[in-house]
Amino acid sequence: MEIVKVDKFLFFFNLCLISIHSLFIAFLIRTLYPIHLMGENLFYADLLAKPVVIPLWLAFIFSNINVVILSILSQFIWNKRQGLILPILYIFNPWSTYLTSLNSFYIYLTSLILTMIFGLILVKSDYRKIGSIVFVLGGVLLLYSSFVMFIMTPLIIMGVLILKLFNKNDIKNLSFWIILFSIPLFIAIFKNPVGWANIYRNEVNIYNGSGHLSDINNFQGQAQAVGFKFFSKIAENRYIYFVKYTSLKIIKNLTPSTYFTPQEKLANFSFSPPIFLGFLLPFLYGVYSLFKYSPAIKFFGVSLILIIPSLLSKQFVDLNRLVIFSFVIFYVISYGLIRLYQNKKLSQRIIFLLAVVLVIFQFFVTFSDIYLREYPRFERTFGINFEIR
Amino acid sequence: MLTSIIILGALLRFNNLTNNPPSLNIDEVAYGYSAYSILKTGKDENGQFMPIAFRSIGDYKSPVLIYLLVPSIALFGLNEFGVRFVTALFGVLSIPLIFLLIKTLTNDSKASFIGAALLAISPWHIYYSRFASDHLIGTFFLLLGFIFFYRLIQGFKDYLPAALFLAVSMYSYHSHRLFVPLFIGSTLVLNRKGIKPSSIKTFLIIIIMLILPLIFLTLFGPLNTRAQMVFLVQDIDYTRYVILDHIEKSGEYFLLIFFWIKRFLNYFQVDFLFFNGLNMTNSNILGLGVLHLFELPLLIFGIIHLIRKKFQFRILIILWILLGLIPASLTNNEQSAGRSLLILPALIMVISLGTIYFLQIIRNLTNLFVKTTILCLFTFLIITSLIHAFLVFSVYFPYQQGEAFMEGTKETVLYALENKDNYREIVFDPYRGIKAQNIVSIPYMYLLFYSKYDPAKFQSEKKENQDGAFKFDKFAIRRIDWREDRYQKGVLFIGSPWSLPEKDIKDSEILQKIYLSSGDLAFLIVSPK
């Protein structure tokens, strides 16, 4: 079996990655305990009014599953040596490690999304049966787990179909099975419309920020008072306001400084960047190369759907929800690093070296900062309420 | 065509100049009175003869704007128009300059006209043209200096004007003192092969000679204090949130590096650029960015065009933008539109190229439906952006930001001056604010300004400065404590409702109430009976 072939080196490599990842998570739990993110109920259980929350130990296991799936996927995409970069990026950057240690629900969802991708790749590599089972399992669990994923999964499948990334019939068959296994979920939704509405209100907060409508009314009122009612109706009506607001949210979710600086705070208090700054240049080079050389740009396009949960949140950028998009960013960085390394130009070699040096430097600075200051920083931000909403 | 663009630019900068912004801010009043003092006595209000750095309220002001204001104040008098005329004029003059810059760099008339038009309607540029601002004056001289500097690199013998104007820009504003040397150095290193060493040597000798006094003042003089005052380590976010008030010393400077990079990258945030960078309203979404929203796609097209077409000047523009943000990002503000204004010409240049590229793409589209749809959507975007900008400038900004421009202080001062003879002392509380008493105004400067107080007298007269109170003539600037001050008969008190609580004052004691344009009560004028 090409993809899941048992390679001694890769086996030990993955074992090492899991050990290091676990060590990092343990370090963070030791430093930050008892700080944690508020648990999210599984969608289906919530509909049945029997709340089930993913415990920390399970988040820990799922995070390590992500490492293994990413490692296998990257071996499929690149050759043996190059394929090592993607899982290394995943474990060495603070983003997923940090959120795992705080028991993020979205780490679990990331596992399910990666499982679906893994299944699709197995199907494409002629391991139809096992690939189909893996894909359908991932898809069904996603639908049952989260309301937002219930909206997003069909969108992802549609995107894959429209861009013809995989065989049309394969996708149709797989979707059929997912729908079939989701019948109990649909029944639960129809039986409990009030629960559904409550879950919707809790999960979709995109326009819940205080004072959106009052802003529009105030501005229109001020314009009207000086005789510019007509102009303000054209330029400051609620439709334009919400288009602007949504565009701002989308662009902020795609701005590099969101990912490479502590501009948006991890868990709303941290000074650690989600991804080390040194990876910014390889990322930009990766985006440039993807546009210029790679057919993978289509996958990149579809993957943008993964920012939707963050868009639906109350904040401009929700790094907790956005973690399901993290592997895409790591993929682009890996691609950029590989291209930079392969390039024989001196300038690009220098960029590569600079990136590596900066990352090593920031790694030590960040981890010592977490050890010395993150807990007091949390106390300064939230006091002694250890549950982050 | 250029003339019409200049006329449009002039209209947008001069129309209702004295009333919008709604009041002179502290810096404008200080600039105005310093210039008035120079005009009357040749010395600033502190008695310094023709200084290079003007000691002002809490900092040192750059000299260029103040000296430029002298003829304006001589001509129009010490009033709002006299103070704001110079910046508005230099704002208008920048329009033909940007035309010249783009023409020199690209030799493309279309791009040059587009650039001039974009600068004429630029909210960033209009905003800083409408009040006395050294940011704009500095950027004007930088633009002028850059044109000659570029010609110098191309082999023309323009070393004298290039050195002169770049040096003047360094004297004009603090950011330029760091930017100009960095920019010249990097450009010369990157273009070393194509440059005549003799011209450059002459240029460097002249510019170093011209800025020697500035170097001395920055390294050993008062300007050093200013630099330390606004440096990033003093940033509240950094001290309170990042290093937690030195809770643990280790690694602080490493964190500072990353904090600085974060600040630097903040200037590329879309909300600063297109939504609320100018802080002219209280809303994040309905504010005004430093660029119009319709310029967003044009900027992206410009960047793509710049990368693809390998223009000779490409590296200069990139350096201008990247190095131009270094001084602003090193200071203790989240994002400062004023300190980063110097990159505006480079951005306008990129957007102009983007517009040309965008029009090319549209022209080459064969599908009429797609072509029409894109053009309609883009026209709609332009129209709504411009209407929104108009409303922000003419309605929301004066309504919502009066306090930032010290609205109401003029009225209190005029009242005090009119009734000066009826009281033995007039007390101003310098602390004001609607939501909290968090703004320190400098009423004595307004008193000097609106009374056209004789600078010679002010320089020579005794000023008491005790226990945080500042006294001259009949005026005292100090905090008001109404529990004690209520018993002082024959004294006029002027302060915000925080220091003069309405509920504790008899109606007959309140002589006047002064409101902001927003309708909030800003000041009470009270005399105990």
From TrEMBL, chain A:
Keywords: Membrane, Transmembrane, Transmembrane helix. It comes from the Bacteria. The chain crosses the membrane at residues 12-33, 53-76, 105-123, 135-162, 174-191, 266-287, 293-312, 319-338, 350-372. The keyword Transmembrane helix applies. This is Glycosyltransferase RgtA/B/C/D-like domain-containing protein. The lineage of its organism: Bacteria, Candidatus Daviesiibacteriota.
